[in-house]
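As a warm-up, study this chain.
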Amino acid sequence: MTKTRASGRTVGGLRTLSLQAPAVTLLLLWMIIPLGMTIWFSFQYYNLLMPGMSGFAGVENYEYLLTDPALWKAMGNTLLLVGWVLAITVVGGTLLAVLFQQDFAGRGIARVLAISPFFVMPTVSALVWKNMMMHPSNGVLAWLANSFGLPAVDWFSTLPLTSIVIIVAWQWLPFALLILLTAMQSLDEDQVEAARMDGAGPIAIFFFITLPHLKRAISVVIMIEMIFLLTIFAEIFVTTSGGPGLATTNLAYLIYMRALLDFDVGVASAGGVIAIILANIVAIFLVRMVAKNLED
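Now compare it with the structure written out below.
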């Protein structure tokens, strides 16, 4: 009987592996082949404008990129963009989640309207903000400024990175709201009511009950958003094209510039490898942070 059970488990395990193998193999090929090609090209002289110049470059592509001031400017812009968007979405999402947890007329419609920007394509939202909201002559913000007798602001010329932060935060705020509002549903109302009976005010309840309850959800929001925010591209491409100068060029857009504007595939691939390493370092740190919060 024992041998029969062991044989059955073996057959079942082989059947499971045979069913999983095609999907796992396809997924690995989908990831490994582009990664391998990127690493290979990062060690090659490969510029489409100079086809005669080819061969093994060693680490020269990395040396060129790491000594390029544009790389460090792009990394600084990336950190600023990620940091400000995370701050706006986490703080704003938390406050909106607390607001939408309250009972008021039209709460369901307000929730839907607040979450809806997340389902707008990045390119579309960038065009809406560029041509309808932040246009220096015909935009809504220009109209509001003129209504109060103030000069209109040319957002993408005078405050380019701030403009990108606003657009991206508008897109990702609904995501943070959705996660945090879902977490609010599990908040023990008896605990809140007991705190009220003990004389705790709304601010004390928020800082000592609501915020600790949302700690895990906030960690998840930070982890997911940071991974995606490191690769922001469409909003920059549609609105500022990385300018003025390098004012809004992040790491993803710098790689695009080297690959499809300078046609230097080797340097662009080296930038891609650097971006992959940074993304993995951030991902490992964030996964550990979330795991620690889940254990608490």
